[in-house]
Description:
- The protein is α+β, with helices and mostly antiparallel strands and 192 residues long.
- 30% of the residues lie in helices and 29% in strands.
Amino acid sequence: MIRPARAATLLVSLVAVFLSCGPQRSQDESHKLLPDSTELFATGHFSVLRYFRRIEKESSPLSYDIWADENFASTYNAALRYQLDSERADLRQSLPIRRVTLDLRRPLTPERQALGRDFISSFEARLRCDLAGLKGTLQEAGEYKRGEKPVQFSCGEVLVEAGVVHNLTVDAEFLVLAFYDRRYFETEFQLR
């Protein structure tokens, strides 16, 4: 359970984030709403992650590109995942990005906290949005319990989410920081 004082602080932070979000993007810019992987890796902050593979399912128009610090299938501590929409691909452009997530194994080491801060800062600069509340979530990740409702808010055309999940494959808990194309999230998860 989230303590009342912490919940109030988090709520104030999230309201501040909501009010400080930059202008909404036009439809022409929607394909560039989320940064592609080359932008994140150009910063040098994600050099500990190695490309794992692209996962494509015949039953879904979505594919995933995955980077991890170790073997993604069994021992990773940090992973970056890009969800791409191959159904709406334009051969002249890269695949539209629908979601970018960073999974950080708990407990968070100083290195994983730094990776999380760099991830959040990359989006903060791109979206021109104050994500101090999300950085606070990263600092307090040890207090979150698996199964608690994720922290969620909008920042312009991007939906931001942070929560704890248990990964059965590696039998570990991860703090997951996610940035979604808001239209995709509302369509796929039917939240309005």
